[in-house]
Design goal:
With about 250 residues, the protein is an alpha+beta fold. The protein contains seven helices and twelve strands.
Protein backbone atom coordinates (compact mmCIF):
# COMPACT_ATOMS: atom_id res chain seq x y z
CA UNK A 1 0.00 0.00 0.00
CA UNK A 2 1.07 3.60 -0.53
CA UNK A 3 -0.32 6.75 1.09
CA UNK A 4 -2.14 9.47 -0.85
CA UNK A 5 -2.16 12.86 0.83
CA UNK A 6 -5.44 14.79 0.74
CA UNK A 7 -4.54 18.49 1.03
CA UNK A 8 -7.40 20.70 2.27
CA UNK A 9 -7.34 22.84 -0.87
CA UNK A 10 -7.73 19.68 -2.95
CA UNK A 11 -11.48 19.73 -2.20
CA UNK A 12 -11.70 22.46 -4.83
CA UNK A 13 -9.54 20.76 -7.47
CA UNK A 14 -9.87 17.81 -9.85
CA UNK A 15 -11.95 16.37 -12.68
CA UNK A 16 -15.10 15.95 -10.55
CA UNK A 17 -15.49 19.39 -9.03
CA UNK A 18 -19.04 20.73 -9.14
CA UNK A 19 -19.14 24.35 -10.28
CA UNK A 20 -22.46 26.19 -10.33
CA UNK A 21 -24.10 29.21 -8.63
CA UNK A 22 -24.25 27.33 -5.31
CA UNK A 23 -20.66 26.14 -5.54
CA UNK A 24 -18.37 28.80 -7.06
CA UNK A 25 -15.00 27.92 -8.53
CA UNK A 26 -11.96 28.38 -6.29
CA UNK A 27 -9.16 29.63 -8.57
CA UNK A 28 -5.87 27.77 -8.52
CA UNK A 29 -2.59 28.38 -10.36
CA UNK A 30 -2.87 26.91 -13.87
CA UNK A 31 0.26 25.48 -15.50
CA UNK A 32 -1.48 22.64 -17.32
CA UNK A 33 -3.42 24.44 -20.07
CA UNK A 34 -2.76 23.49 -23.70
CA UNK A 35 -4.28 24.65 -27.02
CA UNK A 36 -6.96 22.59 -28.73
CA UNK A 37 -6.72 21.76 -32.45
CA UNK A 38 -4.06 24.39 -33.05
CA UNK A 39 -6.45 27.15 -31.96
CA UNK A 40 -6.31 29.74 -29.23
CA UNK A 41 -8.85 27.72 -27.22
CA UNK A 42 -7.24 26.20 -24.11
CA UNK A 43 -8.11 23.17 -21.99
CA UNK A 44 -6.53 21.29 -19.10
CA UNK A 45 -3.99 18.91 -20.62
CA UNK A 46 -5.73 15.58 -19.92
CA UNK A 47 -9.07 16.95 -21.06
CA UNK A 48 -7.47 18.21 -24.26
CA UNK A 49 -5.80 14.86 -24.93
CA UNK A 50 -9.08 13.02 -24.41
CA UNK A 51 -10.88 15.43 -26.75
CA UNK A 52 -8.25 14.94 -29.44
CA UNK A 53 -8.70 11.18 -29.15
CA UNK A 54 -12.47 11.56 -29.42
CA UNK A 55 -12.21 13.73 -32.52
CA UNK A 56 -9.89 11.24 -34.19
CA UNK A 57 -12.23 8.35 -33.31
CA UNK A 58 -15.24 9.94 -35.04
CA UNK A 59 -13.31 10.55 -38.26
CA UNK A 60 -11.19 13.69 -38.12
CA UNK A 61 -13.91 15.63 -36.36
CA UNK A 62 -11.99 18.91 -36.46
CA UNK A 63 -12.90 19.34 -40.13
CA UNK A 64 -16.63 19.63 -39.32
CA UNK A 65 -16.46 20.82 -35.70
CA UNK A 66 -14.59 23.83 -34.34
CA UNK A 67 -13.56 24.72 -30.78
CA UNK A 68 -15.38 27.89 -29.76
CA UNK A 69 -14.51 28.55 -26.12
CA UNK A 70 -12.52 26.65 -23.50
CA UNK A 71 -10.72 27.94 -20.42
CA UNK A 72 -11.60 31.48 -19.38
CA UNK A 73 -9.98 33.70 -16.82
CA UNK A 74 -12.23 35.48 -14.31
CA UNK A 75 -11.82 38.76 -16.19
CA UNK A 76 -12.90 37.16 -19.48
CA UNK A 77 -15.98 35.60 -17.89
CA UNK A 78 -16.85 38.97 -16.40
CA UNK A 79 -16.50 40.66 -19.79
CA UNK A 80 -18.71 38.01 -21.44
CA UNK A 81 -21.35 38.44 -18.73
CA UNK A 82 -21.29 42.23 -19.00
CA UNK A 83 -21.35 42.16 -22.80
CA UNK A 84 -24.29 39.76 -22.90
CA UNK A 85 -26.22 41.85 -20.39
CA UNK A 86 -25.80 44.87 -22.61
CA UNK A 87 -26.57 43.08 -25.89
CA UNK A 88 -29.10 40.41 -24.88
CA UNK A 89 -30.60 41.47 -21.57
CA UNK A 90 -30.78 39.83 -18.15
CA UNK A 91 -33.12 36.92 -18.93
CA UNK A 92 -30.97 35.60 -21.81
CA UNK A 93 -27.74 36.15 -19.90
CA UNK A 94 -28.95 34.29 -16.81
CA UNK A 95 -30.02 31.39 -19.02
CA UNK A 96 -26.89 30.96 -21.13
CA UNK A 97 -24.01 32.69 -19.34
CA UNK A 98 -22.72 31.59 -15.94
CA UNK A 99 -22.02 34.33 -13.45
CA UNK A 100 -18.33 35.21 -13.12
CA UNK A 101 -16.79 32.87 -10.57
CA UNK A 102 -19.44 30.21 -11.21
CA UNK A 103 -18.49 29.13 -14.73
CA UNK A 104 -17.15 25.69 -15.62
CA UNK A 105 -15.05 27.41 -18.26
CA UNK A 106 -12.84 28.74 -15.47
CA UNK A 107 -11.83 25.16 -14.58
CA UNK A 108 -10.22 24.29 -17.94
CA UNK A 109 -12.41 21.16 -18.04
CA UNK A 110 -15.23 22.50 -20.24
CA UNK A 111 -15.49 23.45 -23.88
CA UNK A 112 -18.08 24.89 -26.23
CA UNK A 113 -18.05 23.33 -29.71
CA UNK A 114 -19.71 24.49 -32.89
CA UNK A 115 -20.53 23.17 -36.32
CA UNK A 116 -18.02 24.52 -38.82
CA UNK A 117 -20.36 26.53 -41.00
CA UNK A 118 -18.74 29.90 -41.51
CA UNK A 119 -19.64 32.43 -38.83
CA UNK A 120 -20.08 30.75 -35.44
CA UNK A 121 -22.16 32.28 -32.64
CA UNK A 122 -19.83 32.61 -29.64
CA UNK A 123 -22.53 32.28 -26.96
CA UNK A 124 -24.85 29.76 -28.66
CA UNK A 125 -22.97 27.88 -31.39
CA UNK A 126 -24.89 25.41 -33.54
CA UNK A 127 -24.29 21.80 -32.47
CA UNK A 128 -27.27 19.79 -33.81
CA UNK A 129 -28.53 16.39 -32.70
CA UNK A 130 -27.67 14.83 -36.03
CA UNK A 131 -24.72 14.02 -38.25
CA UNK A 132 -21.20 14.18 -36.88
CA UNK A 133 -22.29 16.26 -33.89
CA UNK A 134 -24.56 13.45 -32.76
CA UNK A 135 -21.83 10.89 -33.45
CA UNK A 136 -19.68 12.98 -31.10
CA UNK A 137 -22.33 12.67 -28.36
CA UNK A 138 -22.71 8.93 -28.90
CA UNK A 139 -18.94 8.42 -28.56
CA UNK A 140 -17.96 11.02 -25.95
CA UNK A 141 -18.38 8.90 -22.80
CA UNK A 142 -15.67 6.53 -24.06
CA UNK A 143 -13.29 9.48 -23.81
CA UNK A 144 -14.52 10.91 -20.52
CA UNK A 145 -16.85 13.64 -21.77
CA UNK A 146 -20.48 14.47 -20.92
CA UNK A 147 -22.95 17.04 -22.20
CA UNK A 148 -23.25 19.28 -19.19
CA UNK A 149 -26.55 21.12 -19.65
CA UNK A 150 -29.19 18.81 -21.19
CA UNK A 151 -32.77 19.72 -22.01
CA UNK A 152 -35.23 19.19 -19.17
CA UNK A 153 -32.63 19.73 -16.44
CA UNK A 154 -32.60 23.52 -16.37
CA UNK A 155 -34.01 23.64 -12.84
CA UNK A 156 -31.29 21.25 -11.67
CA UNK A 157 -28.26 22.91 -13.29
CA UNK A 158 -29.41 26.52 -13.21
CA UNK A 159 -28.37 26.89 -16.86
CA UNK A 160 -30.48 26.63 -20.01
CA UNK A 161 -30.23 23.74 -22.45
CA UNK A 162 -26.81 24.04 -24.14
CA UNK A 163 -26.26 21.42 -26.87
CA UNK A 164 -22.76 22.84 -27.45
CA UNK A 165 -21.28 22.71 -23.91
CA UNK A 166 -19.29 19.64 -22.85
CA UNK A 167 -17.40 18.76 -19.68
CA UNK A 168 -14.54 16.35 -19.03
CA UNK A 169 -15.07 14.10 -15.98
CA UNK A 170 -12.90 11.09 -16.86
CA UNK A 171 -13.83 7.89 -18.66
CA UNK A 172 -15.07 5.76 -15.73
CA UNK A 173 -17.40 8.52 -14.57
CA UNK A 174 -18.71 9.46 -18.02
CA UNK A 175 -19.44 5.80 -18.77
CA UNK A 176 -21.09 5.27 -15.38
CA UNK A 177 -23.24 8.38 -15.77
CA UNK A 178 -24.43 7.19 -19.18
CA UNK A 179 -25.08 3.62 -18.04
CA UNK A 180 -26.96 4.62 -14.89
CA UNK A 181 -28.93 7.46 -16.47
CA UNK A 182 -27.36 10.41 -14.65
CA UNK A 183 -27.78 13.46 -16.87
CA UNK A 184 -26.11 16.03 -14.61
CA UNK A 185 -23.27 16.30 -12.13
CA UNK A 186 -25.72 17.85 -9.65
CA UNK A 187 -27.43 14.44 -9.54
CA UNK A 188 -24.46 12.10 -10.03
CA UNK A 189 -22.01 13.46 -7.46
CA UNK A 190 -24.33 13.37 -4.42
CA UNK A 191 -25.29 9.80 -5.36
CA UNK A 192 -21.62 8.86 -5.66
CA UNK A 193 -20.89 10.39 -2.27
CA UNK A 194 -23.17 7.72 -0.81
CA UNK A 195 -20.37 5.16 -1.27
CA UNK A 196 -17.80 5.91 1.48
CA UNK A 197 -14.28 4.73 0.84
CA UNK A 198 -14.10 3.47 4.41
CA UNK A 199 -16.98 1.08 3.66
CA UNK A 200 -15.38 -0.24 0.48
CA UNK A 201 -16.70 2.34 -1.96
CA UNK A 202 -18.41 1.34 -5.20
CA UNK A 203 -17.14 -1.41 -7.49
CA UNK A 204 -18.81 -1.89 -10.85
CA UNK A 205 -17.99 -2.49 -14.50
CA UNK A 206 -16.37 0.94 -14.67
CA UNK A 207 -13.86 0.57 -11.86
CA UNK A 208 -13.76 1.45 -8.21
CA UNK A 209 -14.56 4.75 -6.54
CA UNK A 210 -15.18 5.93 -3.01
CA UNK A 211 -15.94 9.14 -1.12
CA UNK A 212 -13.68 10.63 1.54
CA UNK A 213 -15.07 13.50 3.66
CA UNK A 214 -13.36 16.84 3.94
CA UNK A 215 -10.82 16.75 6.74
CA UNK A 216 -9.42 13.34 5.79
CA UNK A 217 -5.65 13.79 5.86
CA UNK A 218 -4.51 10.78 3.85
CA UNK A 219 -5.64 7.44 2.44
CA UNK A 220 -3.75 4.29 1.50
CA UNK A 221 -4.19 2.74 -1.94
CA UNK A 222 -2.70 -0.40 -3.49
CA UNK A 223 0.65 -0.13 -5.25
CA UNK A 224 -0.84 -1.51 -8.45
CA UNK A 225 -3.33 0.27 -10.69
CA UNK A 226 -3.76 3.94 -11.48
CA UNK A 227 -5.62 6.07 -8.98
CA UNK A 228 -6.87 9.61 -9.34
CA UNK A 229 -8.05 11.90 -6.59
CA UNK A 230 -10.56 14.71 -7.10
CA UNK A 231 -12.35 17.05 -4.80
CA UNK A 232 -16.07 17.70 -5.35
CA UNK A 233 -15.86 21.44 -4.56
CA UNK A 234 -18.40 20.85 -1.80
CA UNK A 235 -17.41 18.66 1.13
CA UNK A 236 -14.90 15.98 0.21
CA UNK A 237 -12.98 13.85 -2.27
CA UNK A 238 -13.50 10.98 -4.68
CA UNK A 239 -10.76 8.39 -5.09
CA UNK A 240 -11.09 6.58 -8.42
CA UNK A 241 -9.27 3.51 -9.71
CA UNK A 242 -8.40 3.64 -13.38
CA UNK A 243 -7.63 0.10 -14.53
CA UNK A 244 -6.50 -0.92 -18.02
CA UNK A 245 -10.12 -1.02 -19.20
CA UNK A 246 -11.13 2.24 -17.57
CA UNK A 247 -8.30 4.75 -18.10
Amino acid sequence: MRPRILPPEGVHQGDLILVNPRHPYHPAPRADLVPVAGSGVLLERRAAQALEGLMAAIGDGWRAIVPVSGWRAQAEQQAIWDGSLQENGLAFTRTYVARPGCSEHQTGLAIDLGLNQGEVDFLCPAFPYEGLCQTFRQTMAQYGWVQRYPAGKEAVTGIGHEPWHFRYVGRPHALRMAARGFATLEEYLPWLAGFPWAAGGLRDAFGRVGFLPQGTAAVEVPETGTWTLSGNNVDGFFLTEWGDDHG
